[in-house]
Amino acid sequence: MKAVVVERGASRPTLLDVPDPEPDAGEVLLRTLRVGIDGTDHEVVRGNHGGYPPGDDYQILGHEAVAVVEDANGTDLDAGQLVVPTVRRPAGESNRYFERSEPDMAPDGQYVERGIVGAHGYMSEFFTSHPDFLVPVPDSFAEHGFLVEPVSNSEKAFEHAFAARSAFEWDPESALVLGNGPLGLLTLAMLETESSPFERTYCLGRRDRPDPTVDVIERLGGTYVDSRETAVDSVADAYEPMDFVYEATGYAKHAFETVDALAPNGVGALLGIPNDWEFEVDGGRLHRELVLENKALFGSVNSNARQYEAAKDRLGAFPDWFFDAFVTDVYAPENVEGAFETGDDVIKTVVEFDAP
Amino acid sequence: MKAVVVERGASRPTLLDVPDPEPDAGEVLLRTLRVGIDGTDHEVVRGNHGGYPPGDDYQILGHEAVAVVEDANGTDLDAGQLVVPTVRRPAGESNRYFERSEPDMAPDGQYVERGIVGAHGYMSEFFTSHPDFLVPVPDSFAEHGFLVEPVSNSEKAFEHAFAARSAFEWDPESALVLGNGPLGLLTLAMLETESSPFERTYCLGRRDRPDPTVDVIERLGGTYVDSRETAVDSVADAYEPMDFVYEATGYAKHAFETVDALAPNGVGALLGIPNDWEFEVDGGRLHRELVLENKALFGSVNSNARQYEAAKDRLGAFPDWFFDAFVTDVYAPENVEGAFETGDDVIKTVVEFDAP
């Protein structure tokens, strides 16, 4: 079958002919429809994550997928059913995090991530999986169901943010998303759905108008904040202090500037994964502000099945126009290099193996 | 009546004769038994907090008190009843934070703090208060009831810590208290009560043995960590990664080193209030560790009536020996300067206005 891989030593995606996967007993065979590409895929291709699947000199890419059950292989699933696969699998034997259905909380060494580290991903004509790691989705999700995975990551961050503020009566109104990349825009769209408590949303980027991401921000109802004019630590003064800040830039200074952007009793969710970077901070002031204003900060990675379910509901509440504006290009596997090209006109790209 | 005050321009406590307070309608008159002294009192005396009560050139000190109702003044309280007063009062009109019984979450400008900023404290023979700000305690609390206030601050921090980890199944075992001052030792004692889930506790200080705080740490069942031998960011390697870190040093670098000390999925509570201090951090690494290991950090200040109630239960579960070891000196108001003297033999001092 055709698979999009990064080969050992390479730093770009290529199409490879690999053996068709055979489902083990208890596993199902899946036919891939679409696989989205995000920043993590770019990092895998650049070799930042490492960890090829055991015995292989290539890594099949892709962790944001929507697929059809091709062969239910005696499981409770039905052939023809649409599913979205989760990303983490136990490293070796199962462990308590997977037994609790909380793979997202497993520490380093207790998991592999399909398409990212230690296990093949979904960017191939077929893949196999145990049904425990497949979330059924309605047929209407054939086209954009690959977005369930990234949205589930933000659902987790929202859950943790509200949990962190659950010891008192928190009534958040303002939210700031740091980053106008795909995850930032998806999160802004989530903050703008009807069930969201946020009344005023902001999204930070560094683009000149006209720009498609600025258009999406404003059409969603958010305020675009140009970081070249308003730094994160000036947002509270220039706009308003933020009850919730969601960081999706991977820019390490934003983690610290988030403390300044927050309103009293606010909470900041960090999702970016920066490299080492030493710099100076006014640690005394940041520490004091956290304390005297009851502020909170937390990191969040990956997501669990419950959050995939929440993401399904959330995606159903997105406005129809969003998907067309957000998914800027659809590529055939043969043209996968194009799907990894970046530019101001590109928001989200997807590789299509089979028509939805 | 006699009151321990800091006068404008002074930087040490003095005994002053001030007018007896008169309860307004709806207020009660209280006779003070004992008032504990903590780091905040030292800061008030040094002038770090400022904010004298309107119209006065002196601030009556003290916010950790236990008192007897002298005149119930038509309220629901009974004369002779023992109470512990809370610290915050609305600045002017009441506001939503006080109406929700969450004065601890009120932002700057919406509260004054008795004995700290903008309102007289309890270090006087009598004081007045609305009953809403008085927590009844049993007669057995006459001697050590002044500890309800500091313990309530840690109850709040515990509540927020568990809330912050409530979106998943958190089963913490290890806890590290940063600081062997009075609040650190009280918190260690709390972590060692039977209802606490922590199986292994550690307390960081910088003292040579023999030392009374090290004795208390070890008698409680904790492990003493000498920060001169093991820095906070080495604790995970030297001992074990910590599920919970409680910072009570006010040393700003500890806020950042806490991230290193935490186990995956752990949470750090910051309670110290440092001054400005610029220093270098590996912000990229800290940011990345927060994210990839799902770590959380929050600041916490003050406490509410629910947490005072929890503190009452908690204090009842402390071992008897603790109080004698912890309260190292009791001073008459006339000798208050002694109560503010520090030294390696001093843990907690208290000013006694009337015999418990």
Mean pLDDT of chain A: 97
Q: In the CATH hierarchy, what is the superfamily of the largest domain in chain A?
A: Medium-chain alcohol dehydrogenases, catalytic domain
User: What's the assembly state of these chains?
Assistant: homodimer
Give the structural class of chain A: alpha/beta
Span between N and C termini of chain A?
19 Å
Which CATH top level class of the largest domain in chain A fits?
Alpha Beta
Strand content of chain A: 25-35%
Q: Number of helical segments of chain A?
A: 11
Uncertain regions of chain A: pLDDT < 50 for 5+ in a row? none
Binding site for NADP(+) (chains A, B): 180-183, 206-207, 271-273, 300-302
Function (chains A, B): Catalyzes the NAD(P)(+)-dependent oxidation of D-glucose to D-gluconate via gluconolactone. Can utilize both NAD(+) and NADP(+) as electron acceptor. Is involved in the degradation of glucose through a modified Entner-Doudoroff pathway.
Keywords (chains A, B): Carbohydrate metabolism, Metal-binding, NAD, NADP, Nucleotide-binding, Oxidoreductase, Zinc
Domain Glucose dehydrogenase C-terminal (chains A, B): 142-353
